[in-house]
């Protein structure tokens, strides 16, 4: 891991197209050799895009590996490049909503696209924030990651085990909550809500925290600009009348939004994660090696 960090630091001096193409080459190799992750990716794509042919899904899967490997190397730019270079490479549309953030509690809801760290940097160039942080297994990478994510503004990072109370306090103190809402953490604090038509254990925390703090929810998605020109970070309008009285309906609204964005940039959504790992009672695993890779006909 130390060698990877050194490589990322050395590469950050190079032009972005050089780093991106190297990342895509590595991603192509990972697609060949990382069979378990390739299998998970293809299962997810079969579940979410049954209307596609297997060849179409394989093309998306390979592009996803390329995009993911590219994003890892490009983090060197995010962690060590100058502020001026970052502002040239990150195109923010229509702009970081500072007025809204300063006016009242705000949740910046950022789905798991490979460039999500770019969205975080776009915010931190203008504002402090708070977020949940999972400590990395490798201490060297953990330290570099923490420093890289907080080099422009102070950032409050909380462990998932801390619960929501410190997050709510930080939000009431004026910090936006940069939230990654779309991973499977099991049944605790989750509901089975459709994601691409498949029941998925989905955290209800965005809706519950918004209700508790009367926060507005502003989605933000980072994707690649064409021709290796950098990234687009798009802030969407705050959701109206969210969450309302029905937390499950609000969570379904969130999943529908993420689906729509994933359809727009399918290769950049985080398909290597076991999004459907937790199943409703009595339903078999999609990922167990002794089950069919194809999803049941009902889905």
Distance between the termini: 40 Å
Q: What would the principal axes of the Cα set say about the shape?
A: globular
Strand and helix order:
HHHHHEHEHEHEHEEEHEEH
Oligomer: single chain
Uncertain segments are 290-299
Secondary structure category? alpha/beta
How big is the Rg? 19 Å
Care to count the β-strands? 9
Mean of the pLDDT scores? 93
Helix coverage percent of residues?
A: 40-55%
Number of helices: 11
Would you write up a description of this structure?
- This protein is of the alpha/beta class and 299 residues long.
- The protein has one domain (2-268).
- Helices cover 46% and strands 15% of the residues.
- It has helices spanning 2-11, 16-33, 35-48, 54-80, 83-89, 98-103, 116-124, 139-149, 165-172, 205-213, 247-264; strands spanning 90-93, 106-109, 129-132, 155-158, 177-179, 190-195, 198-203, 216-224, 231-235.
- Strands 1-9-8-2-5-3-4 form a 7-stranded mixed beta sheet, with helices on both faces. The protein has a two-stranded antiparallel sheet with strand order 6-7.
- A hairpin with a 6-residue loop joins strand 8 (216-224) and strand 9 (231-235).
- Helix 1 (2-11) crosses helix 4 (54-80).
- Mean pLDDT is 93; it is low at 290-299.
List keywords for this structure.
alpha/beta; 299 residues; 46% helix; two-stranded antiparallel sheet; 11 helices
